[in-house]
Amino acid sequence: MEKGDWLVIIIVIIVLVIVAILTTSMDKLFPTPTVHEAIKQAVNAT
Amino acid sequence: MKDLSKMLVVKELINSLHLIKKNAFWLVIASLTDAVFLLAYGFFTTPVSEKIVEHSVLVANKLSEVMAGKFPTGVLFKLFGPELRPLTFKLILIILLLFLVIYLVYTVFQATSWYIATIIAGKEYSYKQYLLGFARLNILWMGGYLLYKILDVILGLRYIIIRQIVPGAPNIAGKVLLAAFVFFILAALFSYPLLKAKTIFKTPWRISLALVILCTSMFLAARFILDKTAYYGFMYYHTFTPAYVVGLLLLFPTITLIKVYATRVLSNVHARD
Question: Which of B75, B110, B258 is nearest to B195 (CA)?
Answer without folding.
Answer: B110
